[in-house]
From TrEMBL, chains A, B:
InterPro entries noted in UniProt: FAA_hydro_N (IPR041072), Fumarylacetoacetase-like_C (IPR011234), Fumarylacetoacetase_C_sf (IPR036663)
Protein's name in the database: Fumarylacetoacetate hydrolase family protein
Signal peptide (UniProt feature, chain positions): none
Organism: Ollibium composti
Pfam families noted in UniProt: FAA_hydro_N_2 (PF18288), FAA_hydrolase (PF01557)
Alphabetically ordered keywords of this record: Hydrolase
Origin superkingdom: Bacteria
Amino acid sequence: MKLATLKDGSRDGKLVVVSRDLTRCTDASFLARTMQAALDDWTRVAPHLAALAESLEHGSVPSERFHESDAHSPLPRAYQWADGSAYVNHVELVRKARGADMPPSFWTDPLIYQGGSDAFVPPRDPIRMADEAWGIDCEAEVTVIVDDVPMGVGAEEAKDAIRLVMLVNDVTLRALTGPELAKGFGFFQSKPSSAFSPVAVTPDELGDAWDGGKVHLPLMVDLNGKPFGRANAGIDMTFDFPALIAHAARSRPLSAGTIIGSGTVSNKMDGQPGKPVSEGGAGYSCIAEQRVIETIQLGEPKTPFLRFGDTVRIEMKDKAGHSIFGAIEQTVEKYER
Amino acid sequence: MKLATLKDGSRDGKLVVVSRDLTRCTDASFLARTMQAALDDWTRVAPHLAALAESLEHGSVPSERFHESDAHSPLPRAYQWADGSAYVNHVELVRKARGADMPPSFWTDPLIYQGGSDAFVPPRDPIRMADEAWGIDCEAEVTVIVDDVPMGVGAEEAKDAIRLVMLVNDVTLRALTGPELAKGFGFFQSKPSSAFSPVAVTPDELGDAWDGGKVHLPLMVDLNGKPFGRANAGIDMTFDFPALIAHAARSRPLSAGTIIGSGTVSNKMDGQPGKPVSEGGAGYSCIAEQRVIETIQLGEPKTPFLRFGDTVRIEMKDKAGHSIFGAIEQTVEKYER
């Protein structure tokens, strides 16, 4: 089934079930007022949501047109957003850009950071930032939402805790990243509010593209209407979602509604860093990677980070070409108080 | 007024108003079901909670005995836990222990990390860890809960957003800290679930001890029943709470219910690192600091980190000697799944 949260003026929005083709939705708030409420009581609520989804497909319940622009992030605020960096190729390239070496352990020990989760942005809302000089960048990722996970869970058991799958634009401020990470406490100011796809789907909606740990489909990233990234999320994901969940739960439990991110999707090409889409490559899921490649090839980056007025679109389509999660589409705007 | 969350089997517990002397409480869930619900609608709800608190003091509403052991952390789960490290003396000492230099900018640019907030521990529950070898340590801190804070807020305006004050035991796994921070993404596994004081209080309950930015009272930390720390939270706090809030909100808004931590309270003594309580000093709010002093003085640390069976107690008393927030008291236990 596919679920979304409609903006209704409240902090957590209203839960709806969305049709498989994303054209219609039906109120599900009589089963669970909010997405978090559904996740808090998933075992009891999910079968009823699934039944409602079937009824929606058959046209046997009242429904209305689903507009992606009416959707908030599926969880407008969450109790945890733990973002991995599972495509180690991305880590290697971005560190290279910062002049930082990558220890070999990065290929065996998952990297994850604690993200801010109190104020996510709706998927069609602007990225509002005070200053272009902060180096505004997108990071297109796949994410999962888990149920309660006990401390010390193993990867095999962690598989069963995955409830929903989404996309995210994990906006990153590159000019702030370097100085902030040098302080040793991880990201804070350099990771402003993220936006998630209009729709969250149960893994079965992905069919063969879901193998229990990864999504084997290209992640489509467009900048200002032009293809920028088509990296396959099933390729070069060194740590799959169950591995990331187990890593996150080593010394503490995870509560239902915890969002786990894949990190920026990134593919190698013939064992080398990839090429732009325009040159026949899979392109990039963030601008920083393209800038590293340019620096390697040309001595300096030529693609600028996002400027006020630029638009990022992130989407994933099934093999028949239908959008699975709806599209994140955000324009960068100057923030004024 | 003083507020607490009673454990009732639900994820978020039940909101109660607690008497000033912490002996009695009255159900407040008819005004706001949970602490988060009160914070979500503070402007409207707080005056009613305050009126209820007055009635409780006068004995004009039904009340029951308040047992600190019945309390969960005031927010059993929160949308954000952003923990500063405002006592730069602590940072300097702990970095020394890791063999890491401290850049001078640490005295002017606040340090803050994004903590996990999905699964806090009740204040009288054990610290359950799988392995003593992880170097289990306490960190006693003061925290505030804020209302909605707009992006880009200044410190002066941030003052007005402080709604409640609490204590926290920010448990830290010292053996995991070094390797994890070296990876560059901050703490994750090395910061397991925190426990907050049984009671959260509005700043006016602190009287003269609250100056709008700091709490000028000693933070009492006992290990296995013996005084370990008596550092004054109003001394050597290089960045006060409004400064920490402004830092956290530079590139994103903070949502109501965000918890901001002071970092481990730490006092210098005559311009030098402090002395143990037993030697007439203010002692320490974490074991790591004492171990650094021992290493400096004796060549190696002699105080071990927490072992299974050890107990940590964290409390703060007003000038008349009455407990303000109730006590966090946690025994370390082996975690078995």
